[in-house]
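Feature request, filed as a ticket because there's no other form

It would be nice if the structure record came with a short human-readable summary line next to the tokens. Right now we just get the raw output. Example of a typical job, pasted below so the devs can see what we mean:
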Amino acid sequence: MTTHESLVGAMWRKSSYSDGGDNNCIEIIDSFPGAVPVRDSKNPDGPVLLFPAAAWSAFIGGVTADRLR
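Raw output as currently delivered:
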């Protein structure tokens, strides 16, 4: 988890798969250098997970290719 000062005032982006109904979404910051901050959209003041950019990219690739079952 991080409380990195550079996250204050950052532009968070909600998952494109969010339907807005059940609030089970994540938000990320696309422009953080070398990493991808991730938080729970229903708890924006809560903890933030910080993933290395390469690990996040591999995760998204696996999800997109339906390899994570």
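Something like this underneath would help us a lot:
The longest strand covers residues 35-40.
The chain has one helix and four strands.
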